Amino acid sequence: xxxxxxxxxxEEYSKLDSSKIVxxxxxxxxxSTWQKGADKGPEAFLxxxxxxxxxxxxxxxxxxxxxxxxxxxxTENSSPEAMVxxxxxxxxxxxxxxxxxxxxxxxxxxxxxxxxxxNECFDNLTVVQLDAHADLRKEYHGSKCNHACxxxxxxxxxxxxxxxxxxxxxxxxxxxxxxxxxxxxxMAIDDTWMDSAIDQMTDNVFxxxxxxxxxxxxxxxxxxxxxxxxxxxxxxxFLKQVFAEKNVVGFDIVELCPNETERSSDFLAAKLYYKxxxxxxxxxSVDDEYDNSFDNSYVNKxxxxxxNEDDEYYRSHVKFYRKILFTL
Length: 328
Known about the structure:
This protein is of the alpha/beta class.
């Protein structure tokens, strides 16, 4: 990759020591089983980012001024296990430097490494997965580090919440926690899914987004597109709430499979990444030091049930107070 800085930002905002944010590209596509090309995703994402306006209208911020260090790409590809280990080590190295660490893949198997690092560094971690696929196989094609296994380890070791699922193998039903899984067909007719999912999160949250979570009408360039996915503004509404109410400690975005004749997907990925940074830092001054501690005194305690169908009073009041929170 020839990009000198993320989004072409001035070098003064891209130095490691002064940057709050680290971006790790992982151009890996070793285990994908249908359309190849996710290894080209990070480069396409970075090129699209250079053509993006850096003022975010919604938050009124220019988040790049918080500093974004573009790390060297993780290029280990001798085996899926070696790649996961390399991603794990690099991610953990930057977390220990008190950075807000993000990664861009590459296929979803890279997330085994990122999640492992965050789970070792943060107590009581929730992993929020936006995805078309469950990715809960314990092993696939002879490897536990296959893209089809991307969230299995997280399902065993973290509080995993799955959003937008609409394709899976029957074997995965034996692993899945259906009370913390929000299937696309349910979300289409239940407008309480956002509140319900947030109620089940712990304070520390890592977000992993497989771009096939989006509907192919707005994100066609991904390895395994599935109809019936998320749309742009509902996704941003959900992410905005998560960033407002929880301590999002990091995130990754995966499975951009660029197409030379279709560049809007590259730009959606670039815009999504920048929006998430904007939500994370919208209330922080550029001069503030980055700190992953979190004051959760105003947040309701976690509600372990998926749906409170008999408590309309509770749900209406949660929505009311959240609206107040977002206007503060």
